[in-house]
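dude i think i finally got it to work??
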Amino acid sequence: MKPDDLAGAGFYGKVRTHGDFVGRGLSAGFVALWDAWLQRGLVAARERYAEDWLNRYLAMPVWCFAARRGVVAEDAHTGVLMPGIDAVGRYFPFVIAQPVDGDACVSASSWHADAAELALSTLKPDFSLTEFETSLTTLRAQSSGIAPRKADSVWWCDAGEIVHRHDGPFDAALFLRLLEGD
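look at this
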């Protein structure tokens, strides 16, 4: 498969201007797995941190990630994850993700910086989903460098240094680790 054969970036989660989930451009399999993982993670966060879970959630950084083929979907994926909230005050993370060619994990790139900036735009009071989707198409035109990693997924923040390597399916422990920022 050539990079041009892959779908562009898509998104899923909660944004402040809509009362329910929004999403486009990601496979049903990706969304189902992602949704189940985040639901388990949010339950675990509430159990572990009780009343403090929301403070931790809202302080969570924008995480960049790369996952090998088969971890979150048939294809390898890269993207960004951040806290999200909808128009009626329900909390659920927001993700921008894109399939990548091969079974390697993607390293930090300008794509991730641009995706993080675009994801953060969902928090602005004047956020427009239509404008967001238009901006998302510019991410599709960029390619990311691929670098092999010794983990099923890798997670990092804006500096590009790998903060966490995770093997196996995404689980509540991974979400808690991201919530804790280590």
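Residues 28-49 form the longest helix (22 residues).
im so relieved honestly
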